[in-house]
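Q: Hi! First time doing this. I have a protein sequence and I read that you can turn it into a structure. Is that right? Here it is:
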Amino acid sequence: MRKLIEDFPKQIKEAAEALCNQDSYLHDSSAKEFNPDGVLILGMGGSGIGGAFVSSILNKTSNLPILPNPDYSIPGWVSSNTLVVACSNSGNTEETLEAAIEAKKRNAKIACVTSGGKLEEFAIEAGWPLVKVPAGFPPRSQFGHSLLSLAWTLVRFGIFPTALYSMLENTHDFTSKNSPNVIKRAEEVVDIIEGKNIHLYSDTHSGCIVTRWRQQLNENSKLLVNSQAFPELNHNELVGWAAGGESDVVIILRTPEDNFRTQKRMELTAEIFQEIGSDVIFIDPDGENQMERIMDLVFLGDYVSLLLAERAGVDPVEIDYINRLKQGLSEI
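A: Yes, that's right. Below is the predicted 3D structure, encoded as structure tokens:
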């Protein structure tokens, strides 16, 4: 896992170059002709997190609802006017396959991002546009491929702005040059949070980044982590902090895109956490634009999860409980 995380900048570059050579949409003129009234992005875990990022990035500017869908079922509004993008690194994620089958029944326009498996078989049989990603790696380690492939797919449908995509694919230079700083910051964060109950907070629009951090800490570091978003947490979870204390640590991810009032909420809420005795870490991203800042925070979170795993002596690749669950489900 260390090598995969270290190579994150390289992965972004490889993904961008691979997508330049994709021709699955060049012969599908219906992609540009299709004008959906909504976009649904299917996917679970590391395969599906890209949908949350795309939804967040486009939320304030898109005239279409763009929603991630980490579930077996799909919303009732999905129809022949809906674009559904099914994302599964393995191509065999049962929730994603079932949701894709239901979308097909409703005559939705379907595209796929996968390395193979049953999803690729479905796509070839049905003639769905298909983007291939590398096979044989933990899905959570392939964020560069999954996010760029999803964004590239939506560019082909005229949904993800080409200018934003260009910024995204160019983040490999920034992340590569900034790698030493990311590692230094990660070590500083781990020195503070190691052995404590971790609470991850951000503005609502950055909830996808917090989710990514939580997922990486869950899977790589084998830790239970709490996550919530401002301003909602100020209306409920804040009261629960009456049970908080020195064993808790708060990480607040901030970006220039945060709502001004939410920024003030973060500062005032942090004072309460500190009065209770909890450490608070504010993390501000490096980067000159939104895409660089997003990738910087993802890269940083990945390193934090890796360092915690290594200090605890746990295998960041191992997912025994998930494998056990899958085995049990296969017998039903």
